[in-house]
Amino acid sequence: MRNEGTSHSGDSSTGSGTPGETDGQSTDTRSGWLRFRNWVAEHLKKLIGVAVVAFVGIAVQQAVTRSTAPEPGLGPTKVRYLRLFEENGQLLPPFKEVRRNRNAECFTGAAGTLDPNAWRCIAGNQILDPCWYKPYAASDNNNLACVSSPWDRNVVILETPEWGGTPSGTRPTNKLTQPWAIELRNPVRHEQTLHCVWVQGTGVQEINGMRLDWACHADDQSPTHVAGYALGLLNRSHPLNTVPFAPAGSSEVLDADVTAVWP
């Protein structure tokens, strides 16, 4: 007798499925995995966005902090003095003789400095101010040495010039209070130092009654390149003095810190 049921025994499941897993279960597993992957991708994007925003915020905060941080204090204004000679009359370094003149006349007190021993001299058609006699112990103590500023290392020697009185007895009255030279912090570029020397002579421009007293140049530029003018009186109400400063090519007048003065 023929058994008809045995011919259908291999059709109860598909060959591609996992043993014990139905088609519905396989589909559910794949759908769950896709949902999980999409969820991770979505939240990963959010996390990356938050991280980028935080990084940008920190960078901006640091930039603002750097731009608004107070600058280091300069301390009180220093008073400096120029010393040219050894006791024997030799020039001290870094000063050096660059010219010698045998036909000069020293006729009045210096207009550039408050030093009562400084002279105003003329050699040919050139005014030399200030000039100082060499020390008494020097063998050539009748000679004078002249420089144009505390930063001028080139010294002109005047050999035994004619003279006409004592410097302190003929001192110009307009130089009894103002220093010969001042050093400033540039109010426009704070990292730059300005060297300023008294402007001698008459007919100097004034601003609101304040004379353009000192011509200034940057320490990293030629002395012939004028960066601006300091004018009026020094404000000595604080240990760190200030002075009005007019930058070259600008209509502004700014307060500048005075880091050092040479009387």
Report on the architecture of this protein.
The chain is an alpha+beta fold. Among the domains are: 83-170, no CATH class; 177-262, no CATH class. The protein has 1 helix and 16 strands. It has one helix spanning 23-68; strands spanning 78-79, 96-101, 104-109, 119-123, 126-133, 144-146, 154-158, 162-163, 181-185, 193-198, 206-207, 210-211, 214-218, 228-230, 242-247, 254-262. The strands form 3 sheets. The protein has a 7-stranded mixed beta sheet with strand order 2-7-6-5-4-3-8, with no helix packed on it. Strands 9-10-13-14-15-16 form a 6-stranded antiparallel beta barrel. Strands 11-12 form a two-stranded antiparallel sheet. A hairpin with a 6-residue loop joins strand 15 (242-247) and strand 16 (254-262). The longest helix has 46 residues, at 23-68.
